Amino acid sequence: MNKSTTGLYTFRHKLRILERAITKNLSEETSCCGVTLSQCHTLLELSENTNFPAVKLAEVLELDKSTLSRTIESLHKKKLITRTEDESDRRFYLLNLTDEGKKSVSMINTSCDTFYTRLLENVPDDKRESVIESVIILAEAFKKTEQIQCCTNKKGE
Length: 157
Prior knowledge:
Layout: H1 3-31, H2 37-48, E1 52-53, H3 54-61, H4 65-77, E2 81-86, E3 89-97, H5 99-121, H6 128-144
Antiparallel strand pairs: 1-3, 2-3
Helix pairs in contact: 2-5
């Protein structure tokens, strides 16, 4: 391995470790608030948008219609969101948080804020701003980078 592939390998390896840690933490954080990870993302998105069209939510969360439909249905049954027909187009629904949904969002935010505050306390003081800036840059790079297929041979071919 040359120096550039060693750096790439290290980057990929550390990113996988980070991904597992984030996934584990988010699952634990949200399960203690009584919702799944996809329900959590839905609630947080709705906390920033009122009368949010379900179709737009699917785009934002990058979920297919059936997954989003199940998520919305489960949140509606828990009385965390409301669904109302869009008066301008009755084929679509507008989503909003209920008071109970707002309480859940508050619990999720408090729990996550506590965790991420502790996390940043473990980053040296002189590196915190740099770490935050790097995460922002990396998140934007992910959005801009087209997904490539990992393996060229598909199953069954």
